[in-house]
User: What shape does this take?
Amino acid sequence: MDGVRPTGSATATNLFRSFKLRDFRFLWLSDGMGGWADQMELVVLGWFVLLETDSPFMVGLYAALRFTGTLLSPLYGIVIDRYDRKKLLRNARTGFAVIAAGFLLLSVTDRLEVWHVFALSAVLGMVRAFDNVTRQTLIADVVDRDGLMNAVALTRSGRDTTQIVGPVVAGVMLSRAGMGASYGLIVGVYLAGVAFAYQLRTPSGGQAGRGASLLTNLSETATYIGRHQMILALLLMAFLVNLTALPLSLGLMPVYARDGLGASSTGLGQLLAANAVGGFTGSVAIAVLPNFRRPGAVILVASLAWHALILAVTRVRWFGPSLPVLWAAGIAQSFTMVTMTVALLSVTSPELRGRVNGVRSMAVYGLPIGLLTTGGLADVLGITTAMAISGAVGMFFTLLVAVRFRGLWRLSQESDVPARTQSSSE
Assistant: This one.
């Protein structure tokens, strides 16, 4: 890391410097509302599927369907590079509210069934993938390169804050007021996110790639990634952590809560909140710290720690001790994911950020694969054994990436942005 860690008022100034930008403030608020509602949905619907089916695999299938759009992310990236990203973000977040209203209607009329959850979650997954690519690319439009780490860390900390509140609120409301009241709040929070998105003003997106065909755009993006090994390494790491580390917090926590610890829906909310508090702690620390001199090394070390903590939590048989382990895992998760996002945005040519981020979001397809695999193993071997296997596999492949792409250890925050690969249409 460069320089000395600031103290006192300098620390506060360094932490909140991205909030000086009007559009970043509204983007942060919109993201926070979306994260809050999303985490509430994860608890409410995950618990519903578990009670209705009594199957970890079915819970994993529900969580996997939340990411159906990831395979289309490269196509989304092309659209995002061509058109106004503010409008695209508003449309995606309006879609969240509409789908949540569908769940609300089914809940209050007592017609909600598991197949409804699967079908609507698949549609929601298409919208979520588009929103993720748009949101990540838009951050780089709102702040300059030197401010990226602070902006990404603050964005992550905002989502972590709502992920602390969301699961706890959802768990309590679900047990005391039922699904109808829970979904009424979810719809309201989504609508607040839409309202904040409409406050964005900074021009974003443009004509990049409009003169070329869809196939040419995809070919150009693949060639660009193939020629730049550090971008490829970052994409592989993104796929790996989605495959092996994120399935616990983004889908299978209800199974671990009930079958591993004997907890209720309220306990589930507390477990998710503990993990999110760790994520918030890590994100705030990153926002305060100066830019990392070697972000690639941070990613590799944090990934190893994250997977080791997943292994550790499988040895915990009591509710109380599981909370600090999940908290520590949340810190490692933040250092992995925030640094990875900043590094990828920093080393990618601006006119290809949407398309490269589209491929980055396709790496999220590792998550549904991991959810189905780990959920299936949990049906046969139990949730703690399945989690232990996932953690061990993640550590092994992190080390493999570290050996295969040794330059990742030396990747610098000041590395030059790779030049754009010229397409035949130019």
